[in-house]
Each structure stands twice: as structure tokens, then as C-alpha cells.
Design a protein that fits this description.
Blueprint: H1 2-19, E1 22-26, H2 33-42, E2 48-55, E3 60-66, E4 71-75, E5 80-84, H3 97-106, E6 112-117, E7 121-126, E8 131-135, E9 140-144
Antiparallel strand pairs: 1-2, 2-3, 3-4, 4-5, 5-6, 6-7, 7-8, 8-9
């Protein structure tokens, strides 16, 4: 019985190692509908270099890379998780208004080049490299540079 359990555990571990981090290129029309709408609304007219799906063992995510260096990552349900604009700024319509107001008031002449959200907080990066964390009620909870 111990050998059978050990063999099953090894097979499970091998299967997890094979399928974890399995990135596959996809067509943009294979993204969830709300992801496609997000791209069309906020990045309309910007050429897409490629899109991919990342099938982890217990999760799935999507990533879209534009030819200008912009990148958007989506969760398995198609909601944006991360928007990065290397050579421009994150479109204002993506940033919650309270965060945009804070950055405009307290960091004049700086642009948000990256925004990341998860279940606990938002994090924005400014073009000067400063990172600001906000809780889900948009209160500042920390700075990092």
C-alpha cells in the first residue's frame, strides 16, 4: 500500500511539473470577452505583438504584449490585474479616480506607468520609479523606491 501511495504521489508531482507554467500563444479573439473589450477601449489602435495564456496548476492568466512595449495581464475571468506602459503612461480611465487625484496632487509632473491590483491592494509606479501602495479603499499604505 505504501508503494502505491508513493507511486501516486510521484506521478502527481511529475504531472504538476509538466503542466505548471505552461505558456501558450493564443489569438486575441481567444481572450475572455471582457479582456477584448478592455483592450479595445483603452488600447484601441495600438498593434498587438502577441497574446498568451499561462496555465498554471491551479490558475490561469492571460497576457497581451503590444508592439510599443505596453503589457496587460488578465486573470482567468478576464479582469485586468496588471497594466504596464514602459514608454508612455497608463490610460487615466484605468486608474481609480481617488488614486489619480492623489498622484496629481502629491506628485505633480509624474505619470503612472504601471498599475497592479490584487485582492488586497493597488500598487502604482510613477515614471520616476517611485511605487505607491493603496488599500482597496484607496488610502495610501506605503511608499517604495
Amino acid at each position: 500500500m505504501k508503494k502505491l501511495l508513493m507511486m501516486m504521489a510521484c506521478l502527481f508531482a511529475l504531472n504538476a511539473a509538466i503542466y505548471a507554467g505552461d505558456d501558450k500563444p493564443i489569438q486575441v479573439n481567444q481572450l475572455p470577452g471582457n479582456s477584448q473589450q478592455f483592450i479595445q477601449k483603452h488600447f484601441n489602435g495600438i498593434e498587438i505583438s502577441y497574446a498568451k495564456v499561462d496555465n498554471d496548476l491551479l490558475d490561469k492568466s492571460y497576457e497581451v504584449i503590444f508592439v510599443n512595449g505596453n503589457k496587460v495581464e488578465f486573470s482567468k475571468n478576464g479582469e485586468w490585474k496588471d497594466v504596464s506602459c514602459k514608454f508612455s503612461q497608463v490610460p487615466n480611465a484605468i486608474v481609480p479616480q481617488q488614486i489619480l487625484n492623489f498622484v496629481t496632487k502629491n506628485h505633480q509632473n509624474q505619470k503612472i506607468v504601471k498599475i497592479d491590483r490584487d485582492t488586497r491592494d493597488y500598487e502604482v509606479e510613477l515614471n520616476n520609479g517611485l511605487e505607491i501602495k493603496f488599500d482597496l479603499k484607496y488610502n495610501v499604505i506605503g511608499y517604495d523606491d
